[in-house]
């Protein structure tokens, strides 16, 4: 399928002695703004694009960037996420001396420890990181849709002599207050960090993607643990700490597609972006595949009554009705006379004769009954079982 980069591995027997960089994916998010979509699953396990889950994007970015050692930090309702990742074989992350590891919080003799924040989650897995003795640690969020070559970001980090590098993306000024903003000089060196400022001084938003020199981060995490007032968070505590101490922080500008799919509206919009022929997240790019768990479902069936325009139809679907500008997940049945417009239909859903949906996300295994209509012009709806 593809070759995993292994040049940064040195072994003595079964012991891995040194890696240049490993990745840690923060995947424990509850995603409460996604409402019933995350009632039973963590946000990174939410379906996307007909056949993927959100976690597939950072995992695929890792292997495409030559990173073969990945820790996935889970917490909120992790069963489906754990099952999806498994031993990592879809991403070739099942190799000896490397691979993917699921890292839940754990109990000690003295206390039960949930992850208190993003920085605390990394601190609690210090022994895991030390096992690989990396020079650099890449910290990622497990709930964003994007493609990025982390190896290029690492080159930037090394060349600039940074202690930490933060990936940033330029956002519209009217949206900047929603993000952590990095204020930089002309050399992209960060001199100030503002968490969701009311009056932002710049539009460089943190993407929640960091590269740290492990020795410097390890020291900062230990010291942060001693601060009883700390939120144990990278944005609120660790980045400001590096700045206060005068350590060199660099902003890595990213010009590609990136979307935080934290709301029903943004998740729907990111799915719709896949149907845009000019969309830079192109899933058909052979040079940067997005990998996921394979299924054993049959191909889709488009019957002679079907009308399909600008849509993605996944495996195992039977389409007899009309599907326009929509994403159809696996094993969906659209009966003759049913119409699906501008919508995301999740796996196993059924749309019966005469039904019509527009600008919605339809939940897994939901049945839209005969002649039922859902959709509004002024908002995006999520329809789950039991919704009226």
From TrEMBL:
Gene Ontology molecular function terms on file: ATP binding; glucose-1-phosphate adenylyltransferase activity
Gene3D superfamilies per UniProt: Hexapeptide repeat proteins, Spore Coat Polysaccharide Biosynthesis Protein SpsA, Chain A
Keywords annotated in UniProt: ATP-binding, Carbohydrate metabolism, Glycogen biosynthesis, Glycogen metabolism, Nucleotide-binding, Nucleotidyltransferase, Transferase
GO BP annotations, alphabetical order: glycogen biosynthetic process
Pathways involved: Glycan biosynthesis; glycogen biosynthesis
Boundaries of every Nucleotidyl transferase domain copy: 23-276
Enzyme Commission numbers on file: 2.7.7.27
UniProt site (Could play a key role in the communication between the regulatory and the substrate sites): 75, 114
Catalytic activity: alpha-D-glucose 1-phosphate + ATP + H(+) = ADP-alpha-D-glucose + diphosphate
InterPro entries: ADP-Glc_PPase (IPR011831), ADP_Glu_pyroP_CS (IPR005836), GlgC_bac (IPR023049), GlmU/GlgC-like_hexapep (IPR056818), NTP_transferase_dom (IPR005835), Nucleotide-diphossugar_trans (IPR029044), Trimer_LpxA-like_sf (IPR011004)
SUPFAM superfamilies for the chain: Nucleotide-diphospho-sugar transferases, Trimeric LpxA-like enzymes
Keyword Nucleotidyltransferase: yes
Source domain of life: Bacteria
Name of a matching Pfam family: Hexapep_GlmU
Domain Glucose-1-phosphate adenylyltransferase/Bifunctional protein GlmU-like C-terminal hexapeptide stretches: 305-377
Protein family (similarity comment): Belongs to the bacterial/plant glucose-1-phosphate adenylyltransferase family.
Described function: Involved in the biosynthesis of ADP-glucose, a building block required for the elongation reactions to produce glycogen. Catalyzes the reaction between ATP and alpha-D-glucose 1-phosphate (G1P) to produce pyrophosphate and ADP-Glc.
Complex and partners: Homotetramer.
Protein name per the record: Glucose-1-phosphate adenylyltransferase
Species of provenance: Cetobacterium somerae ATCC BAA-474
Upper taxonomic lineage: Bacteria, Fusobacteriati, Fusobacteriota, Fusobacteriia, Fusobacteriales
């Amino acid at each position: 399928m593809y070759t995993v980069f292994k040049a940064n591995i040195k072994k003595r027997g079964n012991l891995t002695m040194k890696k240049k960089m490993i990745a840690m994916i923060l995947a424990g998010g509850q995603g409460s703004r996604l409402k019933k979509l995350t009632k039973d699953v963590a946000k990174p396990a939410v379906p996307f694009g007909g056949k993927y889950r959100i976690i597939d994007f950072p995992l695929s970015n890792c292997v495409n960037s030559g990173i073969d050692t990945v820790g996935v930090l889970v917490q909120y309702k992790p069963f489906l996420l754990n099952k999806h990742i498994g031993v990592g074989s879809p991403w070739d992350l099942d190799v000896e001396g490397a691979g993917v590891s699921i890292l839940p919080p754990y109990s000690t003799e003295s206390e039960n420890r949930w992850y208190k924040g993003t920085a605390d989650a990394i601190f609690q897995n210090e022994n895991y990181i030390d096992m690989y003795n990396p020079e650099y640690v890449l910290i990622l969020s497990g709930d964003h849709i994007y493609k990025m070559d982390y190896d290029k970001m690492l080159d930037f980090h090394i060349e600039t002599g940074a202690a930490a590098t933060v990936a940033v993306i330029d956002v519209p000024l009217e949206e900047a207050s929603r993000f952590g903003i990095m204020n930089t000089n002309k050399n992209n060196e960060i001199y100030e960090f503002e968490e969701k400022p009311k009056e932002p001084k710049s539009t460089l938003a943190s993407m929640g993607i960091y590269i740290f020199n492990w020795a410097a981060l390890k020291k900062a995490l230990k010291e942060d643990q001693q601060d009883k007032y700390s939120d144990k968070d990278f944005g609120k505590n660790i980045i400001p700490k590096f700045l206060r101490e005068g350590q060199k922080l660099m902003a890595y500008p990213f010009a590609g597609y990136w979307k935080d799919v934290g709301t029903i509206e943004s998740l729907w919009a990111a799915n719709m972006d896949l149907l845009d022929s000019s969309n830079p997240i192109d899933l058909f790019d052979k040079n940067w595949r997005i990998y996921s768990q394979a299924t054993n479902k049959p191909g889709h069936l488009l019957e002679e009554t079907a009308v399909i325009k600008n849509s993605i139809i996944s495996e195992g679907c039977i389409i007899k009705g009309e599907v326009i500008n929509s994403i159809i997940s696996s094993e969906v049945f659209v009966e003759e006379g049913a119409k699906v417009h501008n919508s995301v239909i999740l796996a196993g859903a059924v749309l019966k004769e005469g039904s019509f949906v527009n600008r919605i996300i339809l939940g897994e295994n939901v049945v839209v009954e005969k002649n039922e209509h859902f959709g509004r012009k002024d908002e995006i709806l999520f329809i789950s079982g039991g919704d009226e």
